[in-house]
Specification:
Strand content: 15-25%
Number of helices: 21
CATH architecture of the largest domain: 2-Layer Sandwich
Number of strands: 21
CATH topology of the largest domain: Beta-Lactamase
Radius of gyration: 29 Å
CATH superfamily of the largest domain: PAS domain
Distance between the termini: 80 Å
Length: 593
């Protein structure tokens, strides 16, 4: 010890540590004396709070984009197919088949439909077994014997033959008809709905028709749930209005998501509202709507929460990512209120607030009681500064990991994949190289779940995820897009090697057979891919790849399909796909163009 005390470096270090610690303690004491709250006086605590709330805002923003953007891409693709008459706008059966495939592919779509200028209409949406059982006049128990799967579909067709005729057809999840009925009392007219009128107004006003319109959030006519619609009017080759195609997105998913980010045993409260103070989502929103008799979404002051109203009135919450302080009934609260940019120039606002002690606890009282003790062991605390900082960072790291990865496969989740893919696309454009989007779907996977159970299915997904991760370059990214569907973004590829790369990645799933605790399974896969060209957005490119996958599976499973990114003059690239043969080297005409 004496030797150490005589070492100038040790003495200097010891003195410096003590001075730093005393300086920090003095600053904390001064800030506590001179401010009315620890949050205002302690920069570290405030920055920690802002970081948590900022993470919540960013993740909610990404979750909202992922919920809505695929619908706009699907509407644009559907519009092109109808405009070029690759799907006949007057053929209800063809439209029904197409809508069913879209709904089975995109689980977030609530319904898809086509309304014509004469008032005729076809609408396909999701139905649960209870609705189907009620339609048949049977009990839910009896109906579950008929079809044990969770969901089915309902088709509504309004026709004039020549009298008005409204027919409902109910299908199970395998698209087998269960029941049909006529409804002479149905008065629905698509031409009176906001999605139809707004899409047609854009045509009439000669506005830019390259993008789809988005309605304001509203209560859906059939399900009575909050939702939003994207739509686009189809003008055929003769310049005649053939009708308007639309997709419904239920916003209940946003409320469920907000429930998952509620902090500290529901002491915090997140919500989403429009700039006009119309509430779109908050925890338990569906239960609240079930108690209302109104057919419209509530305003912020109607949800019975004085705290929310006071917080929403804070105008400075709109201007930055900083945390704001406010008081209600003598209680102190903190939170943030930030804009979320939605498609079609709409602006929503995400608010999240909580009692101040959720974030700062009883730091003030604890500080005063233990100030002398802190000074006495100050050197020890200063030496432990690094491990303490790491310990504080671990919860944030775990929170970030949960927000960015799929818990089953540990691959990127859908939100994080989309975010990183956009960054990779920007990097490729800067370096003047191309990227490719690859959508991959497993074949023969459903029987594993049905026969051997979901645990065996989870093992299959984990093994597939590991194989995919091992088959790509360091610059590439892979994520689980939902269910048994995976997305991959390939960096620095070209038209000469894209098929070879896609086929190699696809085939790593098939060989060798996958061995699980429930036996050996031969799992295949089908892939759809698109090479980035032109100025197409990330959302459109992933839509092209998904469309190639969907179309390809109708031709032959267990193959790879590559499409070109184009919307004009005809969308042949994602509809006229030709299967690649993995038993021989692909020739030039294997690539759709």
């Amino acid at each position: 010890m004496k030797r150490l005390s005589r070492n100038p470096s040790v003495v200097f270090f010891f003195t410096l540590q003590c001075l730093i610690l005393l300086g920090i303690l003095s600053a904390l004491l001064a800030s506590r004396v001179n401010s009315g709250s620890v949050l205002e006086g302690n920069t570290v605590i405030r920055e920690h709070t802002e970081e948590i709330l900022s993470l919540v805002v960013n993740n909610t923003h990404n979750h909202t984009k992922v919920l809505l953007e695929p619908a706009e891409s699907s509407v644009l693709l559907s519009h092109s197919l109808l405009q070029d008459e690759q799907i006949n706008p007057d053929d209800d059966l063809a439209l029904e088949r197409y809508f069913l495939k879209q709904l089975k592919t995109h689980k977030q779509f609530s319904g898809m439909y086509f309304g014509r200028p004469d008032g005729s209409f076809i609408f396909v949406n999701r139905e649960n077994n209870i609705s189907l059982a009620q339609a048949q006049g049977t009990t839910t128990t009896n109906f579950e014997r008929l079809d044990s799967r969770a969901n089915g579909f309902r088709t509504k067709v309004i026709s004039f033959t020549p009298e008005r005729n409204v027919k409902y057809t109910f299908r199970n999840n395998e698209e087998i008809i269960q029941y049909s009925e006529l409804d002479p009392n149905d008065i629905y007219d698509p031409r009176e709905r906001s999605w139809y009128q707004k899409a047609n107004q854009r045509i009439s006003a000669l506005q830019n028709h390259e993008t789809a319109i988005w309605t304001e959030p509203y209560i859906f006519f059939d399900s009575q749930k909050p939702g939003i619609t994207t739509a686009k009017t189809v003008i055929n080759k003769n310049g005649i209005n053939a009708g308007t195609v639309g997709i419904d997105i239920e916003l209940s998913d946003l409320s469920h998501y907000l429930e998952t980010i509620t902090l500290s045993e529901n002491k915090s409260f997140p919500f989403i509202k429009t700039a006009d103070n119309v509430v779109i989502a908050f925890p338990n929103f569906e239960s609240y709507l079930n108690t209302r008799t109104s057919q419209t979404l509530p305003f912020i002051h109607e949800i019975g929460n004085e705290i929310s109203q006071s917080f929403a009135d804070l105008k400075n919450g709109f201007e930055s990512n900083t945390v704001v302080d406010f008081k209600v009934a003598e209680a102190d609260y903190i939170g943030t209120l930030q804009p979320i940019q939605v498609l079609d120039k709409q602006e929503w606002l995400l608010g999240i607030y909580a009692p101040k002690d959720v974030y700062i606890g009883n730091i003030s009282n604890h500080y005063q009681k233990n100030l002398l003790r802190i000074i006495a062991i100050g050197f020890l605390l200063s030496c432990l500064a690094v491990p303490i900082s790491l310990a504080i960072a671990k919860p944030l790291k775990r929170l970030q990991q949960r927000a960015t990865t799929d818990p089953l496969t540990t691959l990127l989740n859908r939100d994080e994949f989309d975010r990183q893919a956009e960054l990779l696309k920007t990097k490729a454009e800067r370096l003047n190289v191309q990227i490719a989007y690859l959508m991959l779907d497993l074949d023969n996977f459903k029987p594993v779940n049905d026969i051997y159970g979901h645990h065996a299915g989870d093992e299959v997904l984990q093994i597939v995820a590991k194989r995919l991760q091992d088959s790509i370059k360091e610059e590439d990214i892979v994520g689980r897009y939902g269910g048994d569907e995976f997305a991959i973004c390939l960096f620095d590829v070209n038209s000469e090697n894209i098929f070879e790369i896609v086929e190699r990645i696809r085939t790593v799933i098939e060989e060798p057979a996958i061995v699980t605790s429930k036996g050996t399974h031969h799992i295949g896969s089908t892939a759809g891919a698109v090479l980035s060209e032109g100025s197409f957005s990330h959302t459109l490119l992933i839509g092209f790849a998904d469309s190639a996958l969907i179309k390809g599976k109708t031709v032959a499973k267990g193959t790879s399909y590559v499409t070109k990114a184009t919307l004009e003059p005809k969308l042949e690239t994602s509809t006229s796909v030709t299967p690649f043969s993995h038993s021989k080297k692909p020739s030039q005409n294997h690539v759709t163009n």
